[in-house]
Amino acid sequence: MAKQTRDEEFTEYVASRGGWLRKVAYLLCGDWHRADDLVQETITKLYVHWSKASRADNRDGYARRTLVNTFLAEQRTSWWRRTVRTDVDPDAAAAVLDLDASLDLRRALAALPPRQRATVVLRYYCDLSIDQAAEALGCSAGNVKSQSSRALETLRSSLVPVPTTVERTS
Fold it and tell me: Rounded CA gap, 160 and 139, in Å?
């Protein structure tokens, strides 16, 4: 079997894992267009460092860490704060109808601070262990535990149904 060239190997990896990267990016940022931008930037970084990434024991882990670091770096810049966002989804006509609970969870996830959101996505969507999430985030396992705990508490409190009061008239 002929050895693949660097570009062929990279193209094959991106073609097979691009959809997964996009889903993770969406969970991090909560916007499909921004997720596409994050994935594009991540893919560019992967291409530049493909010789190192292709030798990694866990290519998905390397790509995921690159994506999370790209997301967190963007959060530290003022660019995303100046961007005007609307609640109108231009792809709404093509989207499948979501359940109310799913929309509530997405809103609650989007309201989390970036590091907490990244921790929740890595731990519960990507199903990483505490140590793997710590490695991906470049922090200690204790930090992942505390960020997870705070994030889950915030999510629980924001997802608790608000009791409605019914007025009785006699």
Answer: 31
d(CA 128, CA 130): 7
Q: Determine the longest span between alpha carbons in the chain, in angstroms.
A: 85
Mean pLDDT, rounded, for 2-19: 88
Least confident of 33-37, 85-89, 103-107: 85-89
Give the three-state DSSP class for 70. Answer: helix
Distance CA 138, CA 101 (A): 32
Q: What is the pTM of this model?
A: 0.67
pLDDT tens per residue across span 94-112: 445 445 656 677 888 889 9
Which domains does the chain possess?
Answer: 1-95 (1.10.1740), 98-160 (1.10.10.10)
Q: What is the dihedral of CA 56, 125, 36, 95, to 10 degrees?
A: 150
